[in-house]
Amino acid sequence: MATFPSITPTYGQQKRSAPATRTVRFADGYEHRILFGLAAHQNPKVFNFTFNVSETDADTIEGFLDSRANDSASFTFTPPGEGFTKTGTYSQSGTTVTITISSHGVAVGDELTIDYTSGSATDGTFLVASVTDSNVFTVTAAASATNSGNVSITLSGAGQYVCEAWNKSIPYNNRATIQATFREVFEP
Questions:
Q1: Mean pLDDT computed over 144-165
Q2: Strands 75-77 and 2-3, sheet pairing
Q3: Pairing with 175, which of 38, 70, 99, 100 sits 20 to 30 Å away (CA)?
């Protein structure tokens, strides 16, 4: 799987969320909303990016996107500001690990890389099992244990994207602007 080149978009990007829902409206004004599809796939993101770069970097981006158009493949990309690393504490009882981090910003189903910096819990990649509030969430450990300590979590923010259209302009010598729309896709 291809990874987008390490070229950062210019500030001013736009992010659009479009949850996959179906709505049924009844005559009395009652409305019932149903999320459609698998939980992790119900809210794909669409980003509009502008890259104000050198002509060389623009050629790199354009070549990469042309290759993805030719092979019809998605690519791995981490949008600016989408990933983070935070620290806090944890306690494990059985296979449930309760993690406390002020304003953690994670949601059920997010995949986290967890580094238990103290205590005897096993580091690894975990899915968020539940979110109690903005400061507490749980993950499920592979083995039952009782311990506690400090923890560091990382949400990579990387996802699979396709770019179905982009444009390139060369406003002056040795500079170029590429405007592209990246749409999140869900593939195995």
A1: 92
A2: parallel
A3: 70
- What count of other Cβ atoms lies within 10 Å of the Cβ of residue 177? 15
SS3 83: coil
What is the Cα–Cα distance from 34 to 32, expressed in whole angstroms?
7
pLDDT of residue 56: 95
Average pLDDT, the chain: 91
Q: How many CA atoms lie within 13 A of 36 on its CB side?
A: 10
Please choose, from the candidates 63, 40, 49, the residue with its C-alpha nearest in 3D space to the C-alpha of residue 15: 49
Tens-digit pLDDT profile for residues 38-74: 666 677 889 999 999 999 999 999 999 999 999 999 9
Amino acid at 138: T
Closest of 72, 49, 36, 74 to residue 158, by C-alpha: 74
Q: Is the pTM of this model over 0.85?
A: no
CB count within 10 Å of CB 69 equals: 14
> Up-side HSE of residue 169: CA atoms within 13 Å toward CB?
7
Pick the closest to residue 73 from 3, 162, 159, 4 (CA basis). Answer: 162
